[in-house]
Design a protein that fits this description.
Helix content is 38%, strand content 11%. It has twelve helices and nine strands. The strands form four sheets. It has a three-stranded mixed sheet. Strands 1-5 form a two-stranded antiparallel ribbon. It has a two-stranded antiparallel sheet with strand order 2-7. A hairpin with a 2-residue loop joins strand 8 and strand 9 (241-242).
Length: 297
């Protein structure tokens, strides 16, 4: 039931804030990069990062999204963090679902249909599908194409998925930058527990990928990392999908350089005490740090 409660809370996040927008993450999210406003918003609109793919016919999240909204998914949206949405749209989604299914409110619908794990759904898929079909122009869409050679129609997508790529406007299909990852699914072995060393390696690589020397940590030499890697590969990876391998390293390098150029105009710092909190109170030797920065997670 804890899993379903977490999903439910996402739909009611507006109950806990008066903010115009809310960012939602899973409990096993890791932020590997410094986060700038333009990583989350573009021209004042939240950026939604999706995946366009050819899902299996029995894909549960696609089928439950179709049942709940009576709308086809145009993309997979359990694909980035934080999922940022207008709080007003959360209320509209609940009201839409309640009206569509002829119940008093969203709580009644949830209680009737989704109190068992076998009926679990993807709240992010539902949110993205709703705002795409009803609020599209209030968001910016950055959708990675997992099947560039598939036109979205041949073979036909399964019931519940809108595959036709002609629906996407210029610039909406393409490579974008991630600032966080879904740690439990970083490989095709979800139950694989990530070690503390792996997490710290990711933190260090993320910090060293930014153009600031205003932070310090004992024994850290970012040049060890920067001289070896032309860009931070995690910016183009989520879970076990590496989009720099789909779109090509040159495009990833260009996107990474553009992000770093934007960061040069930012006034930020990462104080030693903050970095220690991120890394944990662990003492690494210089040779250990160098090895971590040169490794690819």
């Amino acid at each position: 039931m804890g899993y379903l409660r977490q999903q439910y809370v996402g739909f009611t996040a507006d109950h806990y804030t008066n903010a115009t927008f809310v960012g939602i993450v899973d409990t096993d999210t890791i932020f590997h990069s410094l986060v700038d406003r333009e990583d989350i918003f573009e021209d004042g609109k939240p950026i939604i990062h999706g995946w366009h793919s050819l899902p299996p016919a029995n894909w549960r999240w696609m089928l439950t999204t179709l049942h709940i909204l009576r709308k086809e998914m145009p993309m997979q949206c359990m694909t980035y963090f934080p999922m940022t949405i207008k709080t007003a749209h959360l209320r509209e989604i609940r009201e839409y679902i309640a009206k569509l299914h002829g119940v008093k409110d969203f709580d009644e619908f949830f209680g009737q249909h989704y109190t068992q794990a076998k009926n679990s759904y993807c709240q992010f898929c539902i949110m993205c599908t709703y705002v795409f079909w009803f609020k599209r122009d209030e968001y910016v869409w950055r959708v990675r194409d997992q099947k560039p050679n598939w036109d979205g129609n041949n073979p036909r997508p399964p019931n519940g998925y809108y595959g036709d790529k002609s629906i996407w406007r210029a610039g909406e299909l393409g490579l974008g930058v991630y600032v966080a990852d879904h740690v439990r699914y970083r490989s095709d072995q979800p139950d694989l527990v990530w070690s503390e060393n792996n997490r710290h390696t990711l933190y260090l690589q993320g910090l060293c990928s930014h153009p600031s020397e205003s932070w310090s940590y004992p024994n850290v030499n970012c040049s060890v990392y920067r001289e070896r890697f032309p860009y931070f590969s995690e910016w183009f990876s989520f879970e076990y999908i590496h989009f720099d391998r789909i779109y090509g390293h040159q495009e990833a390098i260009a996107k990474g350089e553009a992000r770093l150029e934007r960061f040069k105009g930012c006034d930020f710092s990462y104080v030693t005490t903050g970095l220690k909190n991120v890394m944990g109170h662990v003492s690494y030797k210089k040779q250990d740090i160098d090895k971590m920065l040169q490794s690819v997670v």
